[in-house]
Amino acid sequence: MFSRRPAPLLLSLSALFWGGNFVIGRWVHGDIAPFSLTFWRWVVAALILMPFVWKEVWAHRSEIRKHIGLLFVLALTGMVMFHSFTYIALRTTTAINAAFVLASMPMVIPIVSMLVGDEVLNIRQGLGILVSIIGVGIIVSQGQITVLMNFAFTPGDLWVLAGVLAWSVYSVLLRRKPESLPPMVLLASTMCLAVVILAPFYVWEVSKVGGFALSLSNGLVIGYVAVFASIAAFWCWNTGVARMGANKAGLFIHLIPLFASILSIIFLNESLQMFHIIGIVPILIGIALTTTSRPAMSKSKEA
Q: pTM above the 0.85 mark?
């Protein structure tokens, strides 16, 4: 039943779950190292998911082997690089800088999409991106022009930028997934590949900085990022991108700073400000402009 929900709703839920992931990543940056958090989120997520989908995975094993190269790149870019880079960034940069850099993703995705010949950005989509960026800028700058004037990149911002590039590649390549692979099979197989890719980095990190404490709070953190920020968010995103296209879906990334702000108000005792209310208006307008436009086909497809 849930799979029949509209693509904009699914993409919005992804942004909500990942907004929470940003808040949690910043909250535990001193307790759980980046590769450890990324590794265990996918281990736990795979352990939760596999009992429900292993029969389907086994039935599609030949298709998985056939497309193992694409699945490997999807796991590397979307599950390993993006989230590891984000957790690394949140150790050395502020949330406002990370959110501002993240807002560049809807601009990067169409560029990647054009480079691989999938879609051409049209005027309406470009206008929607611009309007939405204004809303994000209002939120992450807290409505103060001086914040933007004093904005400077830190090493953490560059890690977020690297994550943006990785996620853009993931989103574009996701459109090339074979129709013969059901969404949950795709998710489960890429999860397992992500664990394999992350394993040596996790071992290296533990040897350098040690592990993390086995506490209730850390367990809840792993549980959230495994269930909501991994299984639920990726399923919603994969399904939404497949229906709507990478260019349009990318704009929903702008909802992540918005949801991160709201969750910070709820869980970190921050207060609701007028700039939150003002900022959401252009974000929603931008999403409406972009999602209601018809994508322009690439020249190769027109031919």
A: no
